Amino acid sequence: MIGYGRRLLTDGHASCKGGPQSWSDRINRFIFPVPYLTLARISDWFRHRHHIAGVIQTVDVALFVTCLTDTFHPRVGVAVVRVLRHLGYRVQFPPDQACCGQPAYNNGFHDEAACMGRRFIDAFEGYGLVVTPSASCANMVKHHLPELLANDHAYAAGARALAGRCHEFGQFLKDVVEFNPAKAGASYPHSVTLHYSCHTRGIATVEETEVLVKALPDVDYRPLSRMGECCGFGGAFGVLYPQISNAMSCDKASRIVETGAEVAVVNESGCSMTIEGTARRCAHTVRFAHVAEVIAESLGLMSDYPPVDDMAR
Amino acid sequence: MSSKKAWFAKNVDSALKNEAQRVAIQQTTAKKMIARAEAVKDVDRFDDLRDLAAQIKQHTLDHLEVYLKQFADQVQANGGTVHHADDAQSACRIIADIARREKSRICVKVKSMTTEEIDLNGVLQAGGLDVVETDLGEFIVQLDDDRPSHIVTPIIHKNRFDVARIFERELGVAYTEDPETLTMHARRHLRDVFARCDLGISGANFAVAESGSICICTNEGNGRYCTTRPRVHIALIGIEKLIPRLEHLPTFLKVLSRSGTGQQITVYASLLTGAKRVSDADGPEHLHVVLLDNGRREILNSEFKEALRCIRCGACLNACPVFSRIGGHAYGGVYPGPIGKLISPLLMSADTSEVFEHYSDLPQASSLCGMCREVCPARIDIPELLIRLRSGQVGQRTVGITRNLGFKLAFRMLGSSFWYRVGQGIMRLGLRLWNHEGWIRSLPWPFSSWTMYRDVRVPAAKSFRRLWRDSLSQSENEEW
Ligand code: SF4
């Protein structure tokens, strides 16, 4: 495994924890001109080879956890990491990541959004595929950042490249991994319904997301009427126009309750906060889960981390 | 919230309290959406058809002056007269002048949002003319002295009990809720008017440049009556209604009715070309075409140009979760719903900054869910345009100083991983003060508006970042 450039430098290499332009990186490049070989490289190579021989090829995936998941639903992040590892990916967490700029962009603060976008691109510079459990953030990275930074010479190319590398979790499983829950030995003996987050539409189709949930062995899938209708979150909208927003979330929550499902799969932290909060206020106790959690559970990866642990830990 | 803008909050408030209206609107829009989903199935690749429609419209807008001239020339060649109106006032004046010159007394109207836009009825009635709406929905609106709340289904906010009461009160007929009987009452009333009318006013769904033809789509056939029976026909046409050639028309007829009402085609699609010729059995002796600008050219030269591709099918209204909750009147303009949020402020050619201030709630009151974009046959990216309007508001500082500064500060913090972590920490500590078994039931301003209706989760004890640092990243090393 003789590497050109940056990608190999990042994985497992102790001396280059900083960003792509960090001094350790530069010195490393200077000392070991490309192509370079180091002891770490060589041992790395053996490890990779070993694994390639064992069927799966290792690919690095960087997790973009998103602000809301990071703060309110860390279990979703954990589930994503475990599922990806289970599938043979090596997961990295770019430590400098913050917000992708979506809230600023949606509220019309485009200068701020561009600023956030640049930092975001910096944070993911040098990593391979990027996976995120949020469709709206993926949508921001895939569609809006490249537009926003199109005239920024230093970042336009980076934004486009990142857009190409970034995947929403569900869509990643379907398109990139071609994940088949039955073959993977999953089992999910619960009744489940699905709310389809609005921004998933720009990323994947309704059917694709539904297929993933339906395909879980032993699942009792209860289709939600008007699945694709907005839950009323909409970022600042939910705070600025609480009455309209609430009229929407109440309908959504009651339709979810009507299905009688134990688990409502909601693929977006924002939606889940909104609907779950509304359902709570009306004393409904449906469990809300991200599709990553459901899949991780179906593969038996979350036994040490029950759902309530988020708040108790 | 300043008093200037409070109208929207008030409208929303009363709309949400009006349970009957909300049910009526939600039922009808849901029905239309189902009908649409069915109707698009029988066209191969409906989405391609939408692309085509959008492209034709875009092309026309890109060369609008050329096509306008061609259209005007053709209308004149066919014996019609063409007038150009820069704004609502001049359009009203032109039409009122024609009516006076022709000594018209009774005017019948085809449903037209463009005439609503310039408030034509009011002006004509003030001039002593008897104006009668002949579309059943608009007729009921007129009887009730109401305003249309939907661009295709003007009485979407009324149920049949309302209609029954209106008929009983205004037409003096016996109270009945039977739709058929009610329709017959309206029909009898309108027949009488049709027999006596001498002026017909219509809009146009499409105007064909190559032939100077006007296409009017209706479901009741009233369009034909209004444009052939009276001696004079005036068509008020927004300049964006043009399409280049007749061969483009089928594409639009296919997408218009499927998107808006879920019909394969509207029951009537009348194509009117010129005034009555000697050899014709019927038709108006005089045809006047009024081409209306009223702010459209300004939109044409702005970043909102694609909004002019709209063919007023109403699909975005039916699809919109906000519209179906608050109804059309809440939007405060002539055009409600997602497309109204865009063009209501844009079409007011008066002092723009004041208009934007007045309508400043409209671009904000959207969750940007994108359902409108999903169904729009002209492929208008309404959410994106709303974001552009918002960005304009930020630029013009019409968002309010607290919100402006608060947002700016928050975004600066969110963008940097250091300040993000600091903010996250403060927020976790702060929110945990209100912790009630893992949930928060109420928060102080400005988050109180969130907790007014729903609970909030308490932030996790350890953020994902912490978990990663503490255990997750290591477990990877072990595995490998
Ligand atoms: S914006 Fe699109 S969906 Fe809405 S009325 Fe116009 S053409 Fe129809």
Kindly report the spatial arrangement of strands forming the biggest sheet of chain A: 2-1-3-4
Query: Which stretches of chain B are low in confidence, meaning pLDDT under 50 for 5 or more residues running?
Result: none
- Give the fraction of residues assigned to helices of chain A: 40-55%
- What about the largest sheet of chain A? 4 strands, parallel
How would you classify the helix and strand content of chain A by structural class? Answer: alpha/beta
How many beta strands in the DSSP annotation of chain A?
8
Helical run tally of chain B = 24
Which ligands does the model contain, each kind named once? iron/sulfur cluster
Second CATH tier, the architecture of the largest domain in chain A: Up-down Bundle
Helix and strand content put the structural class of chain B at alpha/beta
Number of domains of chain A: 2
Report mean pLDDT of chain B, rounded to a whole number.
Answer: 92
